[in-house]
Each structure stands twice: as C-alpha cells, then as structure tokens.
Amino acid sequence: MARRARATCIALTLAALTAAPGRARGYDFEVDSTVLGQGYQVRQVRLGGDRLLNRRRLLGSLRLGVWNLLARGAHGRGPTLSFASNLRYGADFGDYLEQAALDATPELEAQQRQLDVMYAYLDGQGFWGRVDFRAGRQVTVDGLDWFAFDGLTVRVRTPALPLLVEASGGLEARAAREELIAAPAYGDVGGTSAERALLSPTIGAALELAGPRWAAARLSYRRTTSAGATGDEAVDRDLATLGLDDDQLVRAERLTLSGRAWLLGGRLQPYAGARFDALRRSVDQRYAGVSARVTAAHTLRADYQNALPSWDGDSIFNVFTQYPYDDLRVAWDGVLAACWRAELRGTARWFHHAGCDGAAGCDAPSFDIDLGGGAALEWSRRRGHLRGDGWYSAGGSGRSAGLDLSGAWKVRWRLGRGVDAGGGDSDVQLDGRLTLQAFEDALRAELEGVSFGAQVGVGWPIRPGLSAHIWVEDNISRFYDSALRVVGVLDLEVLP
User: Of 63, 234, 266, 364, which has the most beta carbons under 10 Å away?
Assistant: First the structure.
C-alpha cells in the first residue's frame, strides 16, 4: 500500500506540473508509456534435484516531456525551460522470488514490487546568454564514468575562451527502497545494507572545450562519500563495527579526460581517453581509437582499451578485480551493392593474472590471450532486411563459435481498425531470429555444449501513437530441453 501511495503521489505531482493555472504559453508536451510482459522459467540448482521456477514479470515505464515553459522573446530568442521524467515500475508474480529466497537475501524483495524514478529534472538553457542548469534526478554519462544523482548541475560558457565550466552537487541515487524517489535500478553492487542506507553526497566539476567544430575535449572530476550516521540505532550499530560512525567513507573519486577530433572533413576521427581512480591511486581505464571513412562506402575502425574493472569503495567486487585486461578490435564495413552491406571484425584480448607469482623454476606467462573474429552480410530493402552473422573465438577463457540469422519485414495487412481510427491498411512487421552456438569453458569442462535458439515476433501499429509487439522464443541445449519465453510490449505515445 505504501508503494501504491508513492506512485500516486508522483503521478499527481507530474500532473500538477503540466496542469498548473497561468497564462497560456502554448506548452508542448509528450507522454510515452510502455508496458512489457514476460513469461519464462529458470532452473534452480538444488542438492535434492533441480527444479524450474516461474517468472511472470510485468514492466512498465511512463515518460513525460514538457517544453516551452517560458515565453520566448522576439524572433524566438531567449532562455528555454523544459521538464523531463521517466518512471519505471516492475513486478514479478511468479514463484522465482519465493519466501526462502527472500529470507536468505532480503534485497531481492525490491524485484517483487519495484518503482524507479529513472530521471526527473527541470532543464534550463541560455539564461543571461551563457548559463544552463539542470535540477532534479539526472544521469550523467562522462567519458569513462556514469552515475545518477539528485541535485543541481550548472554550466557556464566563458566569454573570453571557448570553454564550458561545469559544477554539480547533490546526493547519489542509491537503492534505498524506503525512499520515495528510490532508485533500485541503479543498484549497489556491494556494501552492506547499513552502508546502502547512508546518504551519499557527491560533488563534481568539469571543463569542456566548446569552440572549434573539429575538436572536442572534456576534463571532469567527481567525488562521492557516505555520511557516517543514519539516525537508526540498529543501522548505526552496524556502521560502528565498520568504523563509519564518526567519519565518512569515500566511495568514489575519479578524474577523467577524453577527447575526439574530426579531421579531413570528418573522414578521419581519432579519439582517446583515460580515467584516474584516486581510491586505487592508478589509471584504471584508458582507451584510444580511430575511425576512417576510406571512401563514401567503406569505413575502417580500430579500438584499443586497457582496463582494470573497478567499483565503488564499499563494494566486495573490488576483491575479485586485481588484474587488468587489454582489448584490441579492428573492423571494416562497407556497401557492396545497392542492397548489400558487409562487415569484418577481428579481436584480441589479453587477460593478466598472477602467473607463477614468484614460484621458483616456473616460467608460465602472466597472461592469457583470446583471439577471435567475425563476419556479417546484410541485405536490406525499404520494407525490411535479412542479416547473417558468424563468429569464432578461442584462447585462455575457452572457445566459442556461432551463427546468427535474423530478419524483419513489413507487410501490408487489411485490418478491421488499422493505423487510423476509421480502419484501413496497416504495416504489420514480422521478425525472426535463428541462433546456433557452440561453447567450451577453459576452467569448467561441464560448461561445454551446443545451444540452438529460435524467435518469431509480430508488431502491429493499432492506431497513431499505439502499437503492440509480441515475441515467442525457445532455446534448446544440454542444460534446458526447452526454455520457452513469451514477451509482449504495448507502446503508447500521446502528442498535443
């Protein structure tokens, strides 16, 4: 009942934003809703014998956008103000989350009835000719870092230099289920329940190159901490055992630099970036690459990345990420003829590890190599396409090979009530996929086998702004005689 009240409160708040009395300024708005249903089974491994658990999932999202909240000046100039939000609701009515599982892992309860405020912010552009701001829940994607927080971001264009100066501050969005604007979707991959109950103040700053059209660069900094007291005796008692009652835990502190250039009229695009993790006191992410449009129909790409997977400071996953990996990818894609397009890919990945770890007389290498490649061929027309894709990889982590054939086609279908309210013809989309994959794990011989999957789907535009899509798929392997899944989507869009 509490969760229902929260959902009602949020819905009334959004309605008030769009229906508040005042001068008519011709607000523009858009409402987009998607409902997705899933039905399938997963295997539960038990000592007394495996069994299949039912998942009956219902996922819904409601997106709202409102523009032109401020009257524009002469010639359409002046600052702009808009609002955007995305609410998502999820529920599972099957027996996957049975009581025994909830007793062992209480955090799973969020998957039974889960309300997420993915984002909800007021966005202002062009105030005083140089100031932009965003207030509310917002998601920041920044080079090699991304995070969600509730707060304020201000961007100022400097008058003398081609730079944008940015500052932000607020509270990190975390998976505290008791909060009205909780964010289980953003989750916490670590930390105790006590730590997740803490507020997490976050501050950030950035400099961004905003002048030349042929180059872009951004230098950013973020620091997130956890306050050391919650006001709850039981929680604070747990925190005291962690030494967090009188101090603050730095959960993340990162400095990121990234850049891209458009040379030779955009035909050559080099890019690079790196991230320094202050908790690890090292550069944990770095990448570089180039994309070259050789001709109007052919493009070459090469990417290199060196990464040490890192998590927030309170995550147990940091224990399992002691060594980095290197990843190199090259690709070509091009148009062969009017309706044909092809792609070639090559990959190489080095997994670093302890090797001999100083053992006498041992000369084992301190890394494993995986090599792989793939090719694809696609035929496309105005009404649909067919695509075939094949791949193979082998090395220290095992072997994998597969073939995938997919396609979609729109057919004209006479229906009782088509895309217009008076009935008529509709473009019904039919799609399908066949996948065959063989796999072998280098460490566990029992994880070896061949799987085959098939999927068919149909999409129907019922009327303007309302469409439905349903997929049925099945997967067969040595682990599942049949893994049938049914997915349905109802999509609603309302425009003024």
Answer: 63
In a domain, 49, yes or no: yes
- Given a contact cutoff of 8 angstroms between Cβ atoms, the answer to whether 63 and 32 are in contact is yes
Residue 73 domain boundaries: 1-116
Q: How many CB atoms lie within 10 A of CB 444?
A: 9
Place of tokens 């552009």: 125
130-143 per-position pLDDT tens digit? 999 999 999 888 77
User: Hey, is 328 helix, strand or coil?
Assistant: strand
**Residues 312, 343 contacting (CB under 8 angstroms):** no
Average pLDDT over residues 85-101: 75
Residue 482: other Cβ atoms inside 10 A: 9
Instruction: With CA atoms as reference, report the closest residue to 60 among 106, 16, 7.
Output: 7
Decide if 308 contacts 285 (C-beta within 8 A): yes
Task: Looking at mean pLDDT, say which of 52-66, 322-336, 364-378 comes out highest.
Answer: 322-336
Exposed e or buried b per residue across 190-215, where buried means at least 16 C-beta atoms within 10 angstroms of its C-beta: bbeebbbbbebbbebebbbebeeeee
Cβ proximity of 227 and 251 under 8 Å: no
Specify the pTM.
0.78
Assigned domain for 140 exists: no
CB-based contact 142:164 (threshold 8 Å): no
Domain count, the chain: 1
